[in-house]
Amino acid sequence: MKGPLSLKSGRVAVLLVDFQEEQRVDPTIQPENLYSVIGKARQLLSVARERGVPVFHAGYVRDFTIRPPRPFELRSADGGASFSDKTNPFVAFCKEVAPVPGETVILKNDASAFEEGSLAGRLHDIKTEWLIIAGVWTEQCIAASVRDAMAAGFRVLIVKDACTSGTVAMHQSAVLNLANRLYGGGVADLERTLALLRGETAEVWRTQKPVPIRFTFDDVTAHYDSL
After folding, report:
1. Is the pLDDT of residue 80 over 90?
2. What is the spatial distance between Cα 13 and Cα 128, in angstroms, rounded to a whole number?
3. Are 181 and 208 contacting, i.e. CB atoms less than 8 angstroms apart?
4. Helix H segments across 113-181?
5. CA quadruple 221, 223, 224, 226: dihedral, nearest 10
6. pLDDT recorded at residue 71
7. Helix, coil or strand: residue 47
8. Residue 159: left (phi > 0), alpha (psi -120 to 50), or beta?
9. In what order do the strands lie in the sheet with 130-136?
């Protein structure tokens, strides 16, 4: 259900996940509505910077010298990673939302931004209570990062329209599945999130009990829109 929320100054951080050029140039891993979502992430980033909110950038860069190939992991013809290989120049962050000096960059070898080990400690060091998350793909790297953030003791706010996946249906169902168990956290759109960053109170959907949203193929969009 929705209820009013305000965020304490100095207890908030923003995490952008996998906004990398490869998502834009490789049609096999290009998400739906990517340009629109990058635009929204850019707005989120701009307001966070204006307000002095710490920003973290996570990128998937597959480096077998750090994490050896997993069983059944897809490989390229030359034996490297099938996508996001460390030698691929397109693993660079999208220029619209690229890190600036002073912002933390996390390079990971798996879905979660917490995989490489330092993120939770960095967030705790700055006394983060709420972690605002945006990025791609919703059911994979966003979902993994959200769950690990919760396990590390952070409240997570998912910016639903600043995330995306392979199709609208994949994205919407992923957000609903996360919302169903987003204990301590919430879901909002960009407009409400920006209001929160500016110190205002906004109506945010928050989980009150296990699996409150029993959606179907027919009503998934209606439930998503209600968040």
Report:
1. no
2. 6
3. no
4. 119-125, 143-151, 168-179
5. 120
6. 94
7. helix
8. beta
9. 2-5, 202-205, 186-188, 155-164, 130-136, 12-17, 55-60, 104-108
30, 37 Cβ separation under 8 angstroms: no
> In the Cβ-directed half-sphere of 185, how many Cα atoms lie within 13 Å?
31
Top CATH class, 2-226: alpha beta
Q: Mean pLDDT over all residues of the chain?
A: 96
Token pair belonging to 226: 């209600």
> Per DSSP, what are the bridge partners of residue 157?
132, 186
Distance of CA 30 to the CA centre of its chain: 16
Half-sphere exposure of residue 147: CA atoms within 13 angstroms, side-chain side:
15
- Decide the pairing of beta strands 155-164 and 104-108: unpaired
Residue with tokens 């193929």: 217
- Report how far residue 110's alpha carbon sits from residue 143's, in angstroms, rounded to the nearest whole number: 12
Angle at 131 between CA 43 and CA 177, to 5 degrees: 95
Per-residue pLDDT tens digits for 147-164: 999 999 999 999 999 999
Q: What is the pLDDT of residues 116-152, one digit of tens each?
A: 999 999 999 999 999 999 999 999 999 999 999 999 9
What is the pLDDT at residue 113? 98
